[in-house]
Fold:
Amino acid sequence: MDIRIPFNRATFVGRELEYVGQAVAAGHISGDGAYTRRCHELLRDLTGARDALLTTSCTHALEMAALLLELGPGDEVIVPSFSFVSCANPFVLRGARPVFADVREDTLNVDHTQLPSLITSRTRAVLVLHYAGVAAEMDAILETCGAAGVDVVEDNAHGFLGTYRGRPLGSFGRFASLSFHETKNLTCGEGGALLLNRDDDVARAEVLREKGTDRSRFFRGLVDRYRWVDVGSSYLPSDMLAAILFAQLEQRDAVQARRRELWDRYRDGLATWAASSGVGLPHVPPECEHPAHLFYLVMPTGASRDRLLESLRQAGILAVFHYLPLHLSPMGARFGGREGQCPVTERVSERLLRLPLYHAMTPGEQDEVIQRVVAFAP
Ligand SMILES: *Cc1c(COP(=O)(O)O)cnc(C)c1O
Structure:
């Protein structure tokens, strides 16, 4: 069956190629050119972060966070099992051990009430993912982590431009990551950013991102040559990608308004059916403003989820599942993951389904998805 309504189409807002052309004409297509600087400035303004650095991906931003935390063997990082591999791999790469936490039934964010029993003398950080861009319970998380001397890292791949009690997501943790992958609200194909919220991380982050050299200081005329001064790698995206991203960041209000409209139409169009069919819809606590990153259904059973996926597929509509529990993956098992360890994650993972949601989605396409869904008896 041909897919007529895809799960995602990359967002395109109009000036991307014009700006890429300008980057090429300016003769600076490697990292940290004019467009990268514009993105940094705008990201700082939008998130309130102390500093923002574009990276080649959200995964790489989290790898930088793991380097800056100076993690090593013997260290533990608490990670919600209902999350993406990139929430654990950056820490595992440093030799640290992921400790899996379960999520709350309502928001599917890390269950903060479990943190006190999971934190040990080896815990160095808690990775918080704002699932679907709906904030995790940050007041309680920051309080628990602060008291234990444990750092918070926000994976804000879903939550860019969302807020918690009026404050931008990405400004709560010592570090936060953003993703500009094709599947995210704003994109440059592949890309991300590291947000830094502590002054003393800023200078070192620049060095790690520039292969462990003080090249950023060199470009600012602060040193007369650049040298190898620390560990590091190459995490800078080309300025051509920054040009694409800047075009999208400029149009963020239009992109967000469109997504919000689509998200609300799903909620309004599916509410009655969901209530009468025992289907769960996204829960947004009043203190959270979310950026309409994704719309999901939690079906009554795993079997009904699979049947709905298949029935939509037969109609040419691609819906997808989300997040196989990390603790039950082959790698998770190597870190002691076992069945029953995170029961909410296990239950939700087999019942959750995400509906198509993209900038260019037409009302006709969305109506078709809604009609197909409400015609389905779980
Ligand atoms: C997309 C995503 C990532 C990975 O982003 P990349 O930019 O592809 O590395 C990480 N975490 C979450 C929660 C994501 O949704």
